[in-house]
Amino acid sequence: MSVYDYTVRGRKGEEVKLSTYKGNVLLIVNTATQCGFTPEYTELEKLYEAYRAKGFEILDFPCNQFDGQAPESIEEIHEICTLKFGTQFPQFGKVDVNGEGAIPLYKYLKDKKGFAGFDMSHKIAPILDGILRKANPEYEKSSEIKWNFTKFLIDRNGEVVSRFEPSYDLGKVAKAIEKLL
């Protein structure tokens, strides 16, 4: 199996086969509009603009599972992303990435790459670690998505290559993308 075997719900409710993206390098991201990491949309758009012509796509999956930080409708989220952050990459319908309601794609992604650890030099990482550790002292042993803006890097064959937690430096993500292009 690969990510190409999955079908997801598009922003307008339509079914989208991920095989549509076959042959591209993908960065699959769960996002939110009211998160400390939300400004990352600007950096993600820069990555998209830099590598799109070389066969790179970012697939944006808004998710409201982390402290209710994506409460808007999908159309409101899309408007925020395009007007405030200038995003042009594909955005899909809101999803659950954890729990019983997690979409099959995210179950697959988490099965392939578990929690990669936070970069504790990031200013938000110690805060997240504290919140998560209070709820579950052994949170890092689970492959569940820990927060918004967790990224999965997929190669041109649809295989999961890397998982980057939200505190991971996007410059390092860019280098990983370049290796696959």
Automatic annotation (TrEMBL):
GO MF, one annotated term: peroxidase activity
Domain of life of the source: Bacteria
Keyword Oxidoreductase: yes
Record carries keyword Membrane: no
GO BP term, pick one: cellular response to oxidative stress
Catalytic site: 35
Keyword annotations: Oxidoreductase, Peroxidase
InterPro entries assigned to the protein according to its UniProt record, in alphabetical order: Glutathione_peroxidase, GPX_AS, GPX_CS, Thioredoxin-like_sf
Family under the similarity heading: Belongs to the glutathione peroxidase family.
Protein's name according to its UniProt entry: Glutathione peroxidase
